[in-house]
Structure formats: C-alpha cells, structure tokens
Amino acid sequence: MLEKTNTPIILCSSAPRLKKIIAEAGYQELRLNGLLAEALVKKDAAIRPQFVSDEAIRIVSSIQGPIFLTDYEMLFDPRYSIDVIRFFYELSRRAKIVIKWCGTLDDNHLVYATPAYRDFHSYNIHDYDITCVI
User: How many other β-carbons are positioned within 10 Å of the β-carbon of residue 67?
Assistant: First the structure.
C-alpha cells in the first residue's frame, strides 16, 4: 500500500511495527512545525497567515523521496484557515506521504483537539477519500 498510493495515508496508531514498516519503505520523517516556524518568523506577523501553505509546500518539496509527516500541529491554528486534510492531498501531489495523525479517530471522524479549543477540527473520513491505518 505504501508504494502504490498517490494519496495521503493517515496513520492513526503509534504501533512500533507500523513505524518500522514506514522506515523500511524508505519514508523520511519530516517534523514540520520547527521548519515552518523558522520560515514564518521571517515574515511580518500581520501577513504571516498568507504564507503558511506556501512555506509548508516548499519544505515538503525540498525533501527527496517519500515523507512520514509528524509534528505539524501549527497547521490547525485557526489564524491560518487551513483545511488540513485537503492540504495533505495538496502535499501528496508533490511526494508520497504518510501522516502520523496527531489527534484521534472517533466514529469515522479524524478529530484534532476538543470543541472547547479554537483549533478544534473534525473530519469525516467518508467526505475525503482518506486511507486511515489503525
């Protein structure tokens, strides 16, 4: 499955065997938050939200080979207005990508945070052609 797909794969488990399979398939871990923050801090704070998607795409495009995306929580920041799942599809056009989901999978919904937080997101997996690995 890792070699044949051109859509993002969402990993909803942290099972060591899955991480091993991903590593053996040649996927490089990309911890996005640090690199993205480093690029954005150079922009004026007032216009920073305009550059988040472009900078993340630039970072992903700079990686050679398939990517295991982790540490990307800043994409959920409501100031950036990013549909994170659609954004993962955009990234998958540039590279094979597996995403370690940083939330939960509840009743066919990928959930990030809780409704009490401004960065809460819930995505029905049937609304997106998502491959989730549990």
Answer: 24
Cα of 58 vs its chain's centroid, Å: 14
Please give the full DSSP string across 19-53, using - where no structure is assigned: HHHHHHTTPEEEEHHHHHHHHHTTS-TTTGGGGHH
The pLDDT tens digits of the residues spanning 34-87 come to 999 999 999 999 999 999 999 999 999 999 999 999 999 999 999 999 999 999
The separation between the first and the last C-alpha atoms of the chain, rounded to the nearest angstrom, is 14
The answer to whether the beta carbons of residues 42 and 1 sit under 8 Å apart is no
Tokens of 64: 């050679």
User: Which residues contact residue 24 at a Cβ distance below 8 angstroms, ignoring those fewer than 6 apart?
Assistant: none
CA distance 35 to 29: 13
Chain position carrying tokens 């050679």:
64
Q: Provide the whole-model pTM.
A: 0.90
What does the alpha-carbon distance between residue 44 and residue 69 come to, in Å, rounded to a whole number? 27
Residue 44 identity (one-letter amino acid):
D
